[in-house]
Prior knowledge:
By secondary structure, this protein is mainly beta. It contains 4 helices and 22 strands. It has helices at residues 2-25, 241-245, 284-288, 290-298, and strands spanning 41-42, 49-53, 58-65, 72-76, 81-85, 88-89, 96-99, 106-111, 120-126, 132-141, 144-147, 152-156, 161-168, 177-181, 184-185, 194-199, 204-209, 218-224, 230-237, 254-258, 263-269, 275-281. It has a 6-stranded mixed β-sheet, with no helix packed on it. A 5-stranded mixed β-sheet has the order 12-19-18-14-15.
Amino acid sequence: METRIGLLGLLLHYCIVIGTVLNLINGEAQPYWEQPYAQPYFDNSTKREVIATVGQSALLHCRVRNLGDRAVSWIRKRDLHILTVGILTYTNDQRFQSLHTEGSDEWTLRITSPQPRDSGTYECQVSTEPKISQAFRLNVVVSRAKILGNGELFIKSGSDINLTCVALQSPAPPSFIYWYKGSRVVNYSQRGGISVLTERQTKTSKLVIARATPADSGNYTCSPSSSDSASVIVHVINGEQPAAMQHGNSSANSILINKHSFSLTYLAAAPGGKNLILSLTSSWFCLILKSICLYGVYR
């Protein structure tokens, strides 16, 4: 009988050793006896620097091993305000919520609709004695779109309209990037000759409108998901002068002379921030006294 008990004990010992080895191989660092009073510790594999976009939920993941019967709290460092204890929210700002799945080691602080003022340091705190904590840095940014080039373009009729939009300060690629002409979505236009190429990984979108006509003139807007939109005004004008204007600065005073028709085009900034285009055909006197001519126009 004693021999049988000894063999069972030896077998149990080997089973425990083998189980411990398998746990270590599988990355489970807990000892086989599952000590109920083992000290909790943080799993440092979680991301400690988080960038979130205004309006998109921010998630801070805290992973605690050997938690036992201790409680996990989230603290806002700048004012030491207790936000959550366990899964309960301890603040009047209901945008803050603790997420936890029964049996898991992860305690996540979710901030719904974060604003730039929510940027700062947050602590995941465990109620040991003394308390232990892990700091997380949250940076809430305003993502915005930018259309490359000038804010106003002059395109020669028959040329292509080529616009490129970039989503700046966007932590993740946008789900979509829509182009609008006025209030109408260009992506699904029936016009024909329109192509939109969106590269989510580079956060860019290119709009090409082939063989533009004056009817294509208007306000074009690039609107990525979760980003402020950007707009550009496009003028499609018949003649050779507008083709040259698109390469210049529309806010500067420049003189363009069409040698074939001996006409003068003067582009100037008129009051109210709009451009004034003055064409004078075969008027060499006004070419010499252009300031007087413009004064008369402004009057």
